Amino acid sequence: MKNIFLFIRNYINLICFLALQITCIVMLSRNSQTHEAFFASASNEITGKVNKQFDNFYSYFRLQEINRQLTAENVRLRNELQSNFIVPDSSRKIVTDSLNKDSLNRYRKFYYLPAKVVGSSVTLQTNFLTLERGSLQGVKKGMSVISPEGIVGVVTEVSDNYSRVMSLLHRNSKVSAMLKKDNNAGSIEWDGVDPTYLTLKNISKGAQVKKGDSIVTSNYSANFPSRIMIGTVADFTVDPTTNFYNLKVKTATNFFTLQYVYIVENVRYTEQAKLENTKPKGNE
């Protein structure tokens, strides 16, 4: 205890200086959007680099599992390549732009970018992932992120070489989902309790729900390609106040072991989001 007081007495000026500096930075970042954005970007870069060093050590012991995941992903992609294209409306003139198209004249809608996970949390109420891929490598806010097993989340922040992803295990995360067998759609959310289970809401009581049914992304999502695996039904109950089921969904993605993911770009995301967010004009 004596040594602690001696240390404080000898370095009191330096301690006070550092405390004041930190206080000034915090106040500046909270009261200025410009500085807040700067500090958020710098923090994201530093955190990403630290997590990368730790991840390099940890990932060495998971090479076998990574190979298994990549093999499964390659098989799935070979079976679903056509889902990345859409058929143009042949009843009207089509103006060809810079988008790639296949031999059947279908235009590419989705692009996939590989990324390494260098930071992740699963035990908080607001969980995020850090990916080693940023704006210099083609990442933008709003892009979706999937794993070999299923969906992961949505990109919310981007720096030059890193990006931050709001995980499905986030209290504010909502993704349009549906029952794979009959396309009954609802909203997938997380209740903040168990990181291995999600909740699918707003499924009609008319749906024939069974344990083990597959839950996939719906056609209504602007971020995710449709019919990407989310999980399977573990249990379900009827909400007595509504006409809907609440489904307990076992996540397909293991958020505890994520190492590599795919960032998905919807080429038409901006156009769709702009239209959906446009307020309808009143009668004039």
Report strand %. 25-35%
Range of helix content: 25-40%
CATH top level of the largest domain? Mainly Beta
Q: How do the strands of the widest beta sheet line up side by side?
A: 3-4-7-6-5-14
According to CATH, the fold-level topology of the largest domain is: Thrombin, subunit H
CATH architecture of the largest domain: Beta Barrel
The tally of domains stands at 3
Explain how this protein is built.
The protein is globular and about 75 Å long. A hairpin with a 7-residue loop joins strand 9 (185-189) and strand 10. The chain is α+β, with helices and mostly antiparallel strands and 284 residues long. Helix 2 packs across helix 3 (33-59). It has helices at residues 2-10, 12-31, 33-59, 63-80, 269-276; strands spanning 85-86, 107-108, 110-120, 126-131, 144-146, 151-158, 163-170, 175-179, 185-189, 197-204, 214-217, 229-238, 244-251, 260-266. It is built from five helices and 14 strands. The chain folds into three domains: 2-49; 59-85 and 104-172 and 256-268, Thrombin, subunit H (Beta Barrel); 175-251, Thrombin, subunit H (Beta Barrel), CATH 2.40.10. The strands form three sheets. Strands 3-4-7-6-5-14 form a six-stranded antiparallel beta barrel. It has a six-stranded antiparallel barrel with strand order 8-9-10-13-12-11. It has a two-stranded antiparallel ribbon with strand order 1-2. Residues 88-98 have low confidence and may be disordered.
